[in-house]
């Protein structure tokens, strides 16, 4: 009975996440979990890195996109899908649409990272440019919807997306049953919503912590205020973490995410460097933030987390704009 009421209250639940897993299993990579004795020693606990940077399209976003695309009936699918995204969701949706043989119309702001635009084109998405503002992105997407009759697939505020992203946690907890804490990057909240619903359903005692850039700390402010807070502007190297929570993701974040740890860009870049040097894994800034959070004083010195001993860290993506990366290295 409890799960019935829960599924009405939230945009997804363990059953929709398991359905997503069955639906997308043959299309996605089951990504590996890596660990490092050196990183364990500096963190003072066991860290288990779920490498979604090795997912198709280079990020976890392919899970949700795949679930959304393959949930459509044939009539809906024939008209294609549309989204607005400056990053990994755009590429993921393009790739999933290509696998189903349907068009993907991708509205991209003109300031999007070049490497992510190239991914969309590589996967056959049809790029439609917008101005950098959210208003322009949404207006352009609405125009495309009217012209094509395509189905809108929002980057995170979508039940199908949340359920697909939750499969990360199903896999991770199958791969290591000892995990007592999962640290997840937070932006629009699609990934952490799915992860939190899946993980807490499998183990109600597990902790789910969000990692957020200080220059885009709307989720931390929202959690403190008890309502969605949006910021007039964001300023962070983590280009994948600049979105604000949606009306579907916020209730899940409010009820299931135990805390939000904010870190600055310098800590994020240092964590990226460790991923490159120690794990030998290319991770984008948004993907490295979980490691930055675990190594931060805000986490280490908080007595509430002293018994978080086996921590799953989701390395959410590896689509690095190398030009920006080298520039950021030289500045720091």
TrEMBL record:
SUPFAM superfamilies: Tryptophan synthase beta subunit-like PLP-dependent enzymes (SSF53686)
Keyword check for Hydrolase: no
Name of this chain's protein: Serine racemase
BP GO annotations: D-serine biosynthetic process; L-serine metabolic process
One Pfam family per UniProt: PALP
EC number: 4.3.1.18, 5.1.1.18
InterPro entries linked to this entry: Ser/Thr_deHydtase_PyrdxlP-BS, TrpB-like_PALP, TrpB-like_PALP_sf
Domain of life: Eukaryota
Domain Tryptophan synthase beta chain-like PALP, first and last residues per copy: 25-316
Gene3D superfamilies: 3.40.50.1100
Family annotation (PANTHER family): SERINE / THREONINE RACEMASE FAMILY MEMBER, SERINE RACEMASE
Keywords: Lyase, Magnesium, Pyridoxal phosphate
Cofactor: pyridoxal 5'-phosphate; Ca(2+); Mn(2+); Mg(2+)
Molecular function, one GO term: pyridoxal phosphate binding
Family: Belongs to the serine/threonine dehydratase family.
């Amino acid at each position: 009975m409890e799960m019935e009421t829960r599924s009405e209250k939230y945009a997804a639940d363990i059953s929709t996440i398991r359905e997503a897993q069955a639906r997308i299993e043959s299309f996605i990579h089951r990504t590996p979990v890596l660990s490092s004795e050196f990183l364990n020693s500096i963190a003072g606990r066991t860290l288990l890195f779920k490498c979604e940077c090795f997912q198709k399209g280079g990020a976890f976003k392919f899970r949700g996109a795949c679930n959304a695309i393959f949930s459509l009936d044939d009539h809906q699918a024939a008209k294609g899908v549309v989204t607005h995204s400056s990053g990994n969701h755009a590429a993921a949706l393009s790739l999933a649409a290509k696998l189903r043989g349907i068009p993907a119309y991708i509205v991209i702001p003109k300031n999007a990272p070049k490497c992510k635009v190239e991914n969309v084109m590589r996967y056959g998405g049809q790029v439609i440019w917008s101005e950098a503002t959210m208003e322009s992105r949404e207006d352009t997407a609405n125009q495309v919807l009217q012209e094509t009759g395509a189905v809108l697939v929002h980057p995170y505020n979508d039940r199908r997306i949340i359920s697909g992203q939750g499969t990360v946690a199903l896999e991770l907890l199958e791969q290591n049953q000892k995990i007592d804490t999962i640290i997840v990057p937070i932006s629009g909240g699609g990934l952490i919503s799915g992860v939190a619903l899946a993980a807490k359903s499998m183990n109600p005692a597990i902790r789910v912590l969000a990692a957020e850039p200080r220059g885009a700390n709307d989720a931390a402010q929202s959690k403190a205020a008890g309502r969605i807070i949006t910021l007039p502007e964001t300023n962070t190297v983590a280009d994948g973490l600049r979105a604000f929570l949606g009306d579907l993701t916020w209730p899940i974040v409010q009820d299931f995410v135990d805390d939000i740890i904010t870190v600055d860009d310098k800590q994020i870049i240092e964590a990226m460097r460790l991923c490159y040097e120690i794990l030998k894994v290319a991770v984008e800034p948004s993907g490295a933030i979980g490691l930055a959070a675990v190594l931060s004083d805000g986490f280490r010195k908080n007595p509430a987390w002293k018994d978080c001993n086996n921590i799953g860290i989701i390395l959410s993506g590896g689509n690095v704009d190398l030009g920006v990366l080298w520039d950021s290295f030289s500045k720091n």
